[in-house]
Amino acid sequence: MDLWLVSCPEPGARPGAHPGAIPDELGVLDAAERKRAASSRRPADRALYVASHLALRTLLGACLRVPAREVVLVREPCPGCGGPHGRPAEPGTPPPLHFSLSHSHGLALIGVAAVPVGVDVQRVPGPGTVDVCAPSLHPAERAELDRLPPGARPGAFAQLWARKEAYLKGIGTGLSRPASADYLGADPRSRPPGWTVTDLPRADGHTAAVAVLGTVPPVPAVRRLPARFSSSHLID
């Protein structure tokens, strides 16, 4: 398993670039990705989406030994309803290549593995967000947060939510599965069986987690990629 962190550049940071401009490498993305990028209203969100998807394609292309623009991305059927919105996948790869992508407020996390994997990165929220979202959690998770002093709750909630979204991405349901259905709290022994869910080191005011099917060795270090890079950056 490999984990990569991408910090997004400021929109329009290149000399002569218009604020919110789409990078020249936009042609590497497929039609659906370009449409999604163009629909982003905030320049920062657009820049992060483009940077993270360019990174994902470059990483997958290096694994598959094909140019990034030739990587084909599809969605597996949803385990819950069978609709075309399950785990993202690269079809026809022997053996299977699994991956997951998450981005939040200027930072993106990518996981690539030989087994189903989910990753999530979350910016630590304010106390108000915790108060609004906590009622939707598993009862044991709510009890854990209630036992913490107020100042510790935002960080604990962000880490909990990162675990939860990583797991839900890993199983392919995403947030279509109720947040209260599974315990992803501080006690690893009580988390869903068959999956290894691991907290990652905090970075730039964000929490992060990875969920991997099965029992896995210690999670590797998270490597950083520049937002604008070539395949030469993947050579250790």
UniProtKB/TrEMBL annotation:
* TM spans (from-to): none
**Is Iron-sulfur one of the keywords UniProt gives this record?**
no
Q: Reply yes or no: does the keyword Transferase apply.
A: yes
Alphabetical keyword list:
Transferase
SUPFAM superfamilies found in the cross-reference section:
4'-phosphopantetheinyl transferase
**GO function terms (MF aspect):** transferase activity
4'-phosphopantetheinyl transferase domain location: 116-178
What family is this protein classified in?
A: Belongs to the P-Pant transferase superfamily. Gsp/Sfp/HetI/AcpT family.
> Can you name this protein?
4'-phosphopantetheinyl transferase family protein
What organism is listed for this UniProt entry? Streptomyces nogalater
